[in-house]
Amino acid sequence: MAQHNHVAATIPRYTRADFTALRFRLNRIPVADILARVYDEDALEAVGIETPAQLEARLDAMRDHLVERVCLSNPYLSASLADARRFNRWPKSAIDYLVRAADQDASQPRPEDPVSAWLRPIVFRALRQEGIQTLAQLHGYISLRGRRWYLPVPRLGAGKARAIEHWLQAHAVTLGPLLVDDTPQTAVVELGADPAGKLVPLEQVQRIVPALDGNSGRNRAPGFCLIAARNDLEAIHAYLYRFRDRDKTARAYQKELERFLLWCVSVRRTALSSVGADDCERYKDFLAQPEPSWIGPKAARSSARWRPFAGALRPESQRYAILVLRGFCMAGRRTLSGREPMAAGF
Q1: Residue 295: helix, strand or coil by DSSP?
Q2: Residue 294: other Cβ atoms inside 10 A
Q3: What φ, ψ does residue 237 adopt, rounded to 5°?
Q4: Which residue of 77, 82, 141, 265 is most buried, as measured by CB atoms within 10 A?
């Protein structure tokens, strides 16, 4: 079945007569009277209204659109407006607030507008499952995650994603320019070569500078090893390979090991296989409060905005990180370590 990539909802362009008619409608004036008292022939022709039923549908759609906008811009009014709409009883204060919102330019989307006010239900319902409520949140979500931002969103393919991007770009005047982060850092790097400590995911580390690669780490076994890992990077890859049939576990372990490797090389300036008990204690402190340069919003691993942390870890997450590292170190006693100090530190 062909995918339909029409994402924008049809939003009427409200006139001054519509604003007046809405106030009458909320005050329960009969629609036939509103049609006769408010609109002239030219106004009716401009909006394509011929019958009271058509006017009623237009005003109800206008009301619902404005309620959506007001509820997100002022959450304190959400319950009262929802009740007013449910029971069709509109106190003067609610009418005044809603009509003030109507008096604003409703023809252009604004960052605080809910996605449901401008996008079709099939689109905004999927976005809400990802916690995206407003156009500003949608704008930021796309900017951070790049061209493949739509992958975690259920029932939203590439076609609809491109249509949403085009719609946002078409309204850049009020929503701001959409700068999709499409500048992946695909080049592999030599970890430790940059004194500033460049932060990249594990898959982009081609090698570590010889002084810090762990080829002759203090905890490395001098004799026979069960794997052919010549340095710390190869030892990490060999350890993660054990979990190749458990994707979730492999990703969780890789995250903790790459953080520790980056910290050892970039912050501690020591090989992972040379750390001792004091280094391990310092890393525990680091997990509780990472450096600001290590923290950033969630972004694609290929993005230049990628950072190892989204914020300070909760105590249970810190404990989990230590358990993962302890398991790695203990497993490496015959492959990477051969001695106790590194494992004992955790």
Answers
A1: strand
A2: 17
A3: -65, -40
A4: 265
Residue where the block lists tokens 């407003």: 134
pTM here? 0.53
Would you kindly state where each structural domain of the chain is located, as residue ranges?
Answer: 16-103, 117-175, 189-345
To the nearest 10°, report the CA torsion of 91, 96, 102, 105.
Answer: -160
Residue 121 amino acid letter: P
Q: Count CB-CB contacts under 10 A for residue 242.
A: 12
Going from the C-alpha of 128 to that of each of 75, 141, 144, 323, the distances in angstroms are 17, 12, 17, 35
C-beta of residue 152 within 8 angstroms of C-beta of residue 143: no
Question: What is the C-alpha separation between 29 and 47, in angstroms, rounded?
Answer: 20
pLDDT in tens, 41-97: 766 776 678 888 888 888 888 887 777 767 666 666 777 777 777 777 787 777 777
Entry field: residues in the chain: 346
Interatomic CA distance for residues 292 and 290, integer angstroms: 6
